[in-house]
User: Fold DNA-binding response regulator from bacterium.
Amino acid sequence: MRILLIEDEPKLARLIAQGLEEESYWVEIVKDGKAGFHAALMGEHDLILLDLMLPGLDGLQICRKLREAKLETPILMLSARGQVQDRVQGLNLGADDYLAKPFEFDELLARVRALLRRQSKAKSTALQTGTLKLDLQAHRLTHEGVEIPLTQQEYRLLEYLLQHQGQILSRLQLAERVWEDPEVAPATIDVYISYLRQKIDKPFGTHLIQTVRGLGYRLVSPETQMDL
Assistant:
């Protein structure tokens, strides 16, 4: 597995790379934001570890530009800024996960493995409700025939909602099953639910993703979307 590490702190970059290489990952280190952006765009990586504070372009700018360029490689953002609003901003711009510094290498490794595991799962079918169709083989979402781009984490969340259509799913359940982290902030889940609604509901005048107050969320069929 090929990992791109965009980190301008030489000591930390060496420690991360050494640890990952001992786990048989191939690691490319880039220390500048602009160079990191081009390396991510032009290279064939399975995962990007992206520092927030970088010279040239910061991590948020890089993340936004990569997603605008339709690059779907999972991004794990690393930052000393660990406030909720910082995490939410990074996730909103397309990061798949966010790890606050300082961190233990074992936690970083666990998150790396989780993201790579999600990326490599074989897909062979499609999930559908009404005209909303998620092609699991092509990683392609369409609604009323219109193709809708999704980030990696949005895809994971929508896939799980479709797999459990009609069921009420708590934030804890979504954290454990979609993020594979029971301690993920509820606000993070709310952000992704909102992002999906902006893509699959608002443009089409539907209400497929419902909030069940005090319990969580559920995705319903078009025929039952108004039954709260």
User: Anything to note?
Assistant: The chain has two domains: 2-121, 126-225.
